[in-house]
Specification:
Elements: E1 23-24, E2 27-35, E3 39-46, E4 51-58, H1 60-63, H2 66-81, E5 90-96, E6 99-105, E7 110-111, H3 112-119, H4 124-143, E8 156-163, E9 166-172, H5 180-184, H6 202-205, H7 212-228, H8 238-247, H9 253-256, H10 263-271, H11 283-310, H12 331-334
Antiparallel strand pairs: 1-2, 2-3, 3-4, 4-6, 5-6, 7-8, 8-9
Helix pairs in contact: 4-7, 4-11, 10-11
The structure holds adenosine-5'-triphosphate (ATP) and magnesium ion.
Length: about 350
């Protein structure tokens, strides 16, 4: 049994945890940042190094699940080993008093979920900039044989960028910390929170082995939402949503938000293919196609504008008529043939 005030069995249930001011594994809890379905994230003071960190405390039920614990230990180690500008650095992951915790860089900003809720669909160039950063993080993880499995707006943190060319800096977080695969193998009992199913790949749903291409699918769902304001599939209940991921074609992006570059429809359709073999091989391949479609649309618009600028108002082009007569010097050539 845990000591009162250190571990709270109701941690992710939405009640204040009473941990403020408490010391957990060398960190003093200073304030709650937010909570998801399986964890609470606090702003905390690393007492050894005297710096602010984000301290994530996982729900005690997860510590009791052996599969989760093993994967948590393995994946936190791998995630901590990846040094990438768009992956939240993990400082420490461990267990104390039956509670799994992760200490990581505190990212001042908001997550992409909050940004979309506040601003709605993003301008295509901004959406493409964020997608590029997340794609580079995912491909780096895949190069370490690490599949994220839970790419979604809530796991993409957006901080201020360094200059006007890069106005935002995206960080990917929460590698391997998904309950979805566990729930699908019977871990989650009826009524427990599984998390959003808006971004889950068909092969995850059917319990097949997953590789980096499941992250390509989820990233495509996120990119779709950043551009359209809604994820590709919306259904009234979870079963229907899972069915849609498995069998329904995604609605064209331009149908959701007319005015978006038409070239994006094919790119998104390929990234959202039901079969991993039919998707882009890497996240960067997918996002470079997204950027090309956005750029082409801009260039097309510019070309149109240039044409309008070059033409003199009031002098319409001559109407098509019969071809002009050949010049006199060419007559000997044509005589006798025409
Ligand atoms: N390193 C960090 N720095 C600052 N804020 C963070 C950090 N990591 C997570 N957060 C914030 O903490 C909150 C809770 O995160 P958490 O991962 O528990 O939930 P989630 O990803 O939204 O949902 P889920 O439980 O489905 O994963 C989010 O609002 C997130 O933006
Ligand atoms: Mg998260």
């Amino acid at each position: 049994m845990a000591e009162p005030g250190t571990t709270d069995p109701d941690l992710p249930a939405g009640r204040p945890s009473g941990l403020l001011g408490k010391q957990i594994a060398g960190y003093r809890v200073e304030g709650e940042i937010g909570r998801g379905g399986m964890a609470v994230v606090y702003r905390a003071r690393d007492l050894r190094l005297d710096r602010t960190v984000a301290l994530k405390l996982l729900a005690p039920e997860l510590a009791r699940n052996d599969t989760f614990r093993k994967r948590f230990a393995h994946e936190s180690r791998v995630a901590a080993a990846i040094d990438h500008p768009h992956i939240v650095p993990v400082f420490e992951a461990g267990e104390t008093e039956g509670l799994l915790y992760i200490a990581m860089r505190y990212v001042a900003g908001q997550d992409l979920r909050a940004l979309l809720d506040r601003e709605g669909p993003l301008p295509p160039d901004k959406a493409a900039r964020i997608a590029l950063q997340v794609a580079s993080a995912l491909d780096a993880a895949h190069a370490h044989d690490l599949v994220h499995r839970d790419v979604k707006p809530g796991n993409i943190l957006i901080a201020a960028g360094i200059d006007s060319d890069r106005p935002e800096h995206a960080y990917l977080t929460d590698f391997g910390l998904t309950k979805k695969s566990l729930s699908l193998t019977g871990f989650t009992s009826v009524g427990q929170f599984v998390g959003t199913l808006d971004y889950v790949a068909p092969e995850q749903i059917s319990g097949k082995p997953v590789d980096g291409r499941c992250d390509v699918y989820s990233l495509a769902c996120v990119v779709y939402e950043t551009l359209a304001g809604v994820p590709p599939f919306r259904r009234d209940d979870d079963m229907a949503l899972l069915w849609a991921h498995q069998y329904d074609p995604p609605p064209p992006l331009t149908g959701e938000r007319p005015g978006l570059p038409a070239g994006l429809d094919d790119v998104l359709a390929k990234a959202l293919a039901k079969s991993p073999e039919e998707r882009y091989g890497t996240c960067l391949e997918f996002v470079s196609e997204v950027r090309a479609a956005v750029r082409d649309a801009e260039t097309g618009r510019d070309r149109g504008r240039d044409r309008r600028r070059r033409s003199v108002p009031g002098t319409p082009p001559p109407p098509p008529g019969p071809p002009p007569e050949p010049p006199r010097w060419a007559m000997p050539v044509f005589r006798g043939r025409l």
